[in-house]
Design brief:
The protein has 19 helices and 12 strands. The chain is an alpha/beta fold. The protein has a 5-stranded parallel beta sheet. It has a 5-stranded mixed beta sheet with strand order 8-9-10-11-12, with helices on both faces. A two-stranded antiparallel sheet has the order 6-7.
């Protein structure tokens, strides 16, 4: 029997506000299906619960018209075995107002594309919100036939702002301020280093001990990468796939040569490209393309790879050493900053890297229409001079602002550049 309950006070008190939540709430007014996708354990189930709570508590929707199903629970499957009966069931509910249908792990519905397309095309007064952890499977099944009927929302592990809120609400508020005290800055930098080691998976962030954090990351890595992705793609060479993830983890921020990867793994190029696409579609990695005015050049040139969660990257390498003790600290900082940039992008904005034949390079380039914002990431700086690659870019292109993200210097407005700490990255891109 369908059961509708409110969140307990304990559940409400332990929720971390997600930055994507206002967008989802705003889209409740739109007729399209809201499709929430992301890796396992990023908080999609909790977020659906927050939407349900919002509808019941804030909007005061009749509980009879807020339908929540979690298809990880077998008893909820029975409602989705017969599409005709389900549409009839929804129609009866809409007689007393608009119905909100929330379905977690929606890819488990038999022939889910046909099923939810039929529900949408029935022209009922129903708003549908779907989520799925097996995002590759969900997106693959829903993409073509649901064109014009859905909007996709991507949920990533915690941003650094969300990470701070999970640690201490007051610290999260500090990021909104122009200036912070030396003590607060020191604490923020220390926490950013922790974020660069353990990442932003909610359960990892909220765990108190190193052992528990490692245990959770092991569970996520094993269940998501080694089981879900491998299983859905029917990957036969599991060892090769696993080795590819570890190779990528060791090459963060470097140019990716697919032919070299294929040779190292004793796989053909097409297989490696297929594996890379799978890791991208399931939000394990994000490729970063070079900047060219001709878009075709971006596609055919070598790209870079970053992990969407640095904790998962560090698990692949088996290295959770302190930030200060690591030989790869610069690459870790670069990956963590990339994640902040990625989450700052608005619709139609892009991030690229810039590299010339002569070897001049900048780590990231934000493209906002005709506006270009170059960003260089440095672990340490000897002085406040603008790095050579950034100077070369500024000479070639007209950029009103450039950012140098670094750990140990805090001087603003040197020519066109701003020297900022990593935790300030998103504030300067707003």
């Amino acid at each position: 029997m369908l059961k509708l309950v409110y969140m307990s006070k304990v559940e409400r008190d332990n929720l971390i506000p997600r930055e994507i939540f206002p967008q989802l709430i705003s889209h409740l007014q739109e007729p399209e299906i809201s499709l929430l996708v992301g890796a396992r354990q990023t908080g999609k189930t909790v977020l659906l619960g927050m939407i349900k709570e919002y509808l019941l508590k804030e909007k005061r929707i009749n509980p009879r018209n807020v339908l929540y199903f979690n298809l990880d629970i077998i008893k909820d499957w029975e409602f989705f075995q017969d599409q005709t009966k389900f549409i009839k069931f929804l129609k009866e509910r809409t007689e007393k107002g608009k119905v909100y249908l929330l379905v977690d792990e929606a890819q488990r519905v038999p022939e889910c594309t046909r099923f939810f397309k039929g529900v949408y095309d029935s022209d009922l007064n129903v708003k549908t919100i779907l989520s799925g952890s097996a995002s590759l499977e969900l997106k693959t099944r829903l993409k073509e036939s649901m064109t014009g009927r859905k909007r996709i929302f991507h949920l990533f592990p915690f941003s650094f702002t969300e990470f701070l809120k999970a640690k201490n609400a007051d610290l999260g508020e500090l990021l909104k301020k122009e200036k912070v005290s030396d003590l607060s800055r020191k604490e923020l930098l220390s926490l950013f280093k922790e974020y660069a080691i353990w990442g932003g998976y909610p359960r990892v962030v909220l765990s108190k001990t190193r052992e528990k954090k490692e245990e959770i990351l092991s569970e996520i890595y094993t269940s998501y990468i080694e089981r879900d992705i491998v299983g859905f793609l029917e990957i036969k060479n599991r060892l090769g796939f696993s080795k590819l993830v570890k190779l990528l983890a060791g090459q963060v921020g470097q140019l990716v040569n697919i032919s070299e990867l294929a040779n190292s793994l004793n796989l053909d190029r097409g297989t490696v490209e297929r594996y890379l696409k799978a890791l991208e579609e399931t939000f394990v990695i994000t490729p970063l393309y070079p900047y060219f005015k001709n878009p075709r050049q971006e596609i055919i040139k070598q790209n870079k790879i970053y992990f969407n969660d640095v904790g998962l990257r560090n698990y692949a390498l088996g290295n959770f050493s302190l930030f200060e003790e690591r030989g790869d600290a610069g690459f870790l900082l670069e990956n963590a900053v990339f994640k902040e940039i990625l989450l700052s992008l608005k619709t139609f904005e892009k991030v690229r890297f810039w590299r010339t034949k002569q070897g001049s390079e900048i780590d990231f380039l934000i493209i906002k229409g005709e506006t270009l914002i170059p960003i260089e990431v440095k672990l340490k700086l000897k002085d406040s001079k603008i790095p050579l690659g950034l100077r070369n870019f500024l000479e070639k292109y007209s950029a009103k602002i450039a950012l140098v993200v670094n750990m140990d210097i805090y001087e603003k407005s040197v020519d066109k550049a701003y020297f900022i700490h990593p935790y300030e990255t998103r504030r300067y891109l707003r």
